[in-house]
Amino acid sequence: MDSDKVTVRGFLVQGVATLAISYLATLTGLVFSWPSYNVANFMSNDTVLYEPMTSVHVSLLGSLTNIGAMLGTPFCGYIVNWMGRKYSAMLFGLPFVLTWTIISVTSSVPLILTAMALAGFSTAGQAISSIYISEISQDSIRGAMMSTIVSSYFLGLLISYIFGGYLNYDVVVYLHLSMSVLYLVMLALLKESPVFLMQRGREKEAAESIAFYRQVKVTSKEVEVEIAKIRLQLDPRLEKILEGEHDVTITKELIDSQPPAPKLSEWQFLKQSQTSMNALMTSLACMATMILMGNIALQVYAETLFKEAVPLMDSNQCSIFLAIDLLVASVLCSFVIDKFGRKFLMISTSFFASVCTMVLGTQIQWHWAPHWFTAVTIYVYSFIFNVGVAVIPYVLSAELFLPEVRGLCSSIVMASGWAMNFVTMVIFTPVVEEVGFAPLFYAFSVVGFIGAGYCVFYLPETKGLSVDAIQALFVKKSKRKALELS
């Protein structure tokens, strides 16, 4: 539609703003990769720390960030609606600055571990980043913009691995600190989300925000149409309007009448909104599929598998190549997500990534191919997974929900993701020691096949759709049929 036509200037402004917001994910990549190339130094007698780390310390070094994220994510939904998208994003960027400041001035093991736990609160802010980006992006390019969060994370991994391979400890820490400060500076230059401004009754500022991100005049028809769309999204009677879409009289009366002042809390609104509950279940199912397919665990243990497959190659080089593989795949996703759609990508990549883990399991169990085939399969699996499965759940977590519950539902989905990720990492090593890698990869494949089947029947296509149009997809089929018969 013409009102959603993206101008070149509008695309550039939205793109630059998206890169600034998703830069939090780049900082997250720095934090998660930093321990991997410092563990050997931290455990050696010549460590840069006051004393060598024990195996328990190393385990905490890699897991405390996840715990911080789990604790911080539930607060995102409340803070994002209290402070707004912009200032909430800046608030969640501060722990990264504090983390690298602490690490830069101390060599104490307890303080280093405390700093890594503190960093987890910043990584929780990715839920806010998703919401912020979804609300400043036009519907036709929303998927591509939101997918940059995952690309930015892998960019952070790549940058940190390169830093770790060629620079000394102190220089890397100071670079990470400088990059964290840059995030706050970039966000300070952006405008607030028009959806939040409309929620606060600041319609004039909302119009200015829309005009800024779309690079049109405040008085233009496009701004007027977008304001009307946001007003409809914020109407607490939207679900009734959607259910009454086949009764023109009822729908017109609902739209023309003055909307009542919203009095429900986010939890109350969620419990009474069947479309929001359906959307939440779908989003949680997609997130569970992504986490339980074992991609994070495979990345952690990739070095072990690479050492067996390509023993002559430096492990840091393998990590850099894997980060490049992940980054290229996620960037490709940003180009195809609004062309092929969320549903097709989720189903196809879940299926073919599961085929790869099945092949990888048989290779590990029976060694029917040369060792280098294991490395190739890991790269192919990682590429396929990150073209779709690794990205789609994050896109859905922000675009499926009405503004009234967007912060709450996005926080629930992200917190569930962190919790599942933490449990997966905790049980992975004991399970590997007990049954080996092969059965686990078979289990990952089963999860992927089940997830793909679920998406065939329950995941609606949302590409290019506005929030109210997406909600219409979650109205129960039984209600639609009843309305059509009446």
Question: In a nutshell, what does this entry contain?
Answer:
With 486 residues, the chain is mainly α. It folds into two domains: 1-190, Growth Hormone, Chain: A (Up-down Bundle); 265-486, Up-down Bundle (Growth Hormone, Chain: A), CATH 1.20.1250. The protein has 24 helices and no strands.
According to DSSP, the number of beta strands is: 0
Rg, alpha carbons: 23 Å
Structural shape: globular
Mean pLDDT: 87
Structural class: mainly alpha
What pattern of helices and strands is seen along the backbone? HHHHHHHHHHHHHHHHHHHHHHHH
Distance between the termini: 31 Å
Which ranges are low-confidence, i.e. pLDDT below 50, for 5 or more consecutive residues? 246-252, 481-486
Per CATH, the architecture of the largest domain is Up-down Bundle
CATH class of the largest domain, anyone? Answer: Mainly Alpha
Largest sheet: none
CATH superfamily of the largest domain: MFS general substrate transporter like domains
Helix content: over 70%
- Beta percentage is under 5%
* Domain module tally: 2
Classify the fold: give the CATH topology of the largest domain: Growth Hormone, Chain: A
Count, helices: 24
What report would you give on this structure?
- One of its GO terms (cellular component) is plasma membrane.
- InterPro entries: MFS_dom, MFS_sugar_transport-like, MFS_trans_sf, MFS_Trehalose_Transporter.
- The chain crosses the membrane at residues 12-34, 54-80, 87-105, 111-133, 145-167, 173-190, 279-300, 320-337, 344-366, 372-396, 408-428, 440-459.
- Helix content is 79%, strand content 0%.
- It is an all-alpha fold.
- Helix 4 packs antiparallel against helix 8 (169-188) and helix 16 (295-309) runs antiparallel to helix 19 (372-387).
- The longest helix is centred in the C-terminal third of the chain and has 33 residues, at 403-435.
